[in-house]
Amino acid sequence: MNPLLTTKAETFRSGSDNLEFYHNRLIKLTNGVLLFCSGGEAEITIDLEKHHIIPNTNIMLLPGSILSLRSASPDFQIHYFAYSGEMMKVACFRLDPAFMHFMKENSCYTHTRLETIRPILRMIEASAAIYADKENQFRESIAQNLLQIFFLDTYDKVQRYFTKEQLEGGNRKGQLFKKFIHLVHTNCTMQRDVAFYAEQLCISTRYLSAITKEVGQISAKEIIDEFLTLEIKVALQSTNLSLKEIADRYNFPDQSFFGRYFKKHTGMSPKEYRAKRI
């Protein structure tokens, strides 16, 4: 069972886990999760980025994030507070959108200051207590308030400890690159044309390609293909959709074209990949 999954009946969850469910699997989260490493070490990927997790590392996963556990020490343990997308909207609706973008770009952060660790530990303790109190008629409201307190406190710390340049993504090229990555993450399942993203950013395709080469050392098309391939892998691993249904979902003209595209970027056919991951 996925320990980080919320449902309509259970809009938040809190507890401890070793994330074994995510070992060598790509799981796309439909809800948000706050995690805090209390022991051991692990290697995880969030979307396409690798992260080394050690004690006092805080991990923030927004809805739509793709999580995988690559390896972990025997004593690896995390505390988690999973919450629905609706609960997150209510908790964050007054916060600057740039802050949420910054949090997504910096999803893993290892704390060294006791003053930043203490609020997280208090929230973990409080969320676990209210989750365990099934008879409390106000438990969802309390969980909602705990989440909002956490985001407000984090927002305050970010404003104090990070420069405006760090929050906004450095120079204009860096800002455009981050906006491009966000657009690809949101739209790659339906839009694979570089021109679409250039138009959204109000720049030319040539300039967009130059930015991705300079900032990310990779072409704009390669970034789009990497994100789309990741989404397809998730569908092959975690759904029972037929190959034709997956081809339709991701806007391929037919199953044959879909198969050639996937094999070009992974070295194996969709059927081979699905069989290998079972």
UniProtKB/TrEMBL annotation:
Residues 178-276 form the HTH araC/xylS-type domain. The keyword Lipid metabolism does not apply. It comes from the Bacteria. Coiled coil: none annotated. GO terms for molecular function: DNA-binding transcription factor activity; sequence-specific DNA binding. Keywords: DNA-binding, Transcription, Transcription regulation. Pfam families: HTH_18 (PF12833). This is HTH araC/xylS-type domain-containing protein. It comes from Bacteroides cellulosilyticus CL02T12C19.
